[in-house]
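Recall the central idea of this unit: under ordinary conditions, the amino acid sequence of a chain determines the structure it adopts. In this exercise we apply that idea directly, starting from the sequence alone.
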Amino acid sequence: MKPTDFSKYLTDFLSKYLPGERGASRNTISAYRDTFLLFINYMEGSELISVKKLTIDMIKMESVIGFLDWLQKERKCSDSTRNVRLAAIHSFFRFMQYKNPDNLFEWQRILSVPVKKAEHNIINNLSLEGMKLLFEQPDLSLRKGRRDLALLSLMYDSGARVQEMIDLSPSMLRLEHPCTVKLVGKGNKARIVPLMDQQIYFLKQYMSENHLSESRMCLHPLFYNSRKEKLTRAGVNHILNCYANMARLKKPSVIPDKISCHALRHSKAMHLLQAGVNLVYIRDILGHTSVQTTEIYARADSKQKREALEKSYTGVAPIGTPTWLADENLLTWLKCL
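Accordingly, the structure predicted from this sequence is:
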């Protein structure tokens, strides 16, 4: 089978341009790859164009819009997911502007497809009471329970993303005072997050039990499954939801109906904010590029909003029972108000 120009351009985009020129992370490249796998499925199923025959000039703005609509109608994707897929397509056709300028007009038509305005969901986070209840659920008499508590408590304490936890190795931890963890986030950006000595008690026990403090294990996955392989995103979410379900049975009011690993990160940010930590420090702990991203927690914290309003509140409404209720002279009361 003769390769098409689309296959050549897509291969160069994923294997050379993204990792080489853009310095994209493995996760970004995987997400972009998944987008084009879906796009190829759409072109084969809806446009009846086999991947063996798909050439770059067959891809039009209408094809891209049709693909985005297919994602939402057939696969029931959210507006946010649609926008993520569109971002991958936009990145590819910005690359194509330089690789194949002959079709520049069509590439710019595709780049003009706008992102869809998505609803901003309420931040899903747990209260301190909810976090304590969650961490009481692992069975510490079991090896798995001790691992799970070390995993969940470190993920909360560091405000890490789930992929950052999966990629951790013992070499990225400093367990002497002052304790720190090195997290590698989006765009391969690394940050050092301080940890309190009392916070890593279970982590130290877990590492000692599994010989993870030995030099030969420095690059071994910090958290791994029964096959000694690093955990997956789905695996970590499964662990969290098992204990969340257990906690919800005991006290439903403090555990949200739906919970994900990102909820622990949101919870840490909210708890830091409520403790009076400056947004700039929270930004650095979470690894946000801009403090504007971190400001979502300030906007979402209804408790702090209420406290601020109560401190600044000045009563302007009349106090007591209106006199016109007694003498029925409404006009007189309004003139005196």
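The beta strands are 173-174, 180-184, 190-194.
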